[in-house]
Amino acid sequence: MSTRPYPSYKDSGVEWLGRIPAQWRALKIKRLSLVKRGASPRPIDDPIFFSENGAYAWVRISDVTASTKYLLQTYERLSELGRSKSVALEPGELFLSIAATVGKPIITKIKCCIHDGFVYFVGLKENREFLYWLFSSGGLYQGLGKLGTQLNLNTDTIGDIRIPIPPSDEQTAIASFLDQETGRIDALVKKKERLLELLREKRTALISHAVTQGLDPNVPQKDSGIPWLGRIPAQWSLRTLKHTATFFGGGTPSKDNLAYWAGDIPWVSPKDMKDETVNDSEDHITPDAIRASATRMIPSRSVLLVVRSGILKHTIPVGINSCPVALNQDMKAIVPKIGLDSNYLAWFFRGLQSVLLLEWRKAGATVESLEHDLIARTRIPCPDEGEQQAIAGFLDRETGKIDALVKKKERLIERLREYRTALISAAVTGQIDVRNHAAAVGN
Q1: pLDDT digits over 292-328, tens only?
Q2: Which part of the chain has CATH 1.10.287.1120?
Q3: Does residue 173 contact residue 435 with C-beta atoms inside 8 Å?
């Protein structure tokens, strides 16, 4: 794709906008349209306001967040009474969220009603597709906060924003250009994300196979007697975790006593479990905190598990600490005894996370947590310690290769998204001239 700047520019007089093409204007939004707020029937949970057969869909912030450029469906519809107490929009209208996911624009393709967490534009004559991309760029919010959740928007602040207004044919050309180019980028990102998913699946399968089958595919097998484990090498033993390791929990020193905090001892909590090796923590405590609370020092090379956190809906964060640490109450440390290698044990937990999440949860629990007794009673397959170390070394090397590929793909996706954002900004502010591109596509 080749794009060039416009032949001539002028100062827009708008700080965030800078120079714009000579034939463009910079106007406040309230010069182009009345900015109005949506409305809600009250009380909003009264079923009298809703009907499955209602002519107008009821738009919640979550409906907009789940959509991209166009609103195609919602989960609820309003009754005629509910519609009369809200603000009804026809297909093709543009509106903007000013609550929760603040600043997100969307164009409705359906008849819908919006509540007071949205604003809409009355009498707007400009191209809605162009304005969608302009709002999506985020540039016009500069000085009002960060796009997403920190903006402070209302009808007055939006109305006072000065925006670039190209001639109508250029608005159409810019919108068409961005539809095509962002669609191409989005398809490429989706393809890269699928490759990431496959790499992560390959990593999990590699770990699972190594810690349950070993590295030699030709060794005799035996039934483990454990349904979720299946067959294992015949020479491996099965050990109950509570007999082969020591368990330690954690605790939180009093937040009111400053003498317990900002010390030299890492105090590990779930937020520190982002990597498989735990080298440090966000919070640190003092020796006095150790003496005065339920937390204690955990030796290096222990296996650390998150046992209480919302993340346990999906995965069990597992790490090995490279230095002595203390833990908070949402963590558990497992210190292997002689004959069980820490690294092998950590890889076992990582490779069988999906089944262990089920095995270690208490039936009927309403909080995402892992039960100590269930963990302690887990029987794990154990080759001799030399083979454990060989398996762990193999997984260190092979997962390292996969992780390097994952990081490479993640950086590429990040650059694609940065390019997408920059392209939108450049097009809607006139830093690039896309008129010839649109004409070439049309021909």
Answers
A1: 999 999 999 999 999 999 999 999 999 999 999 999 9
A2: 166-216+383-443
A3: yes
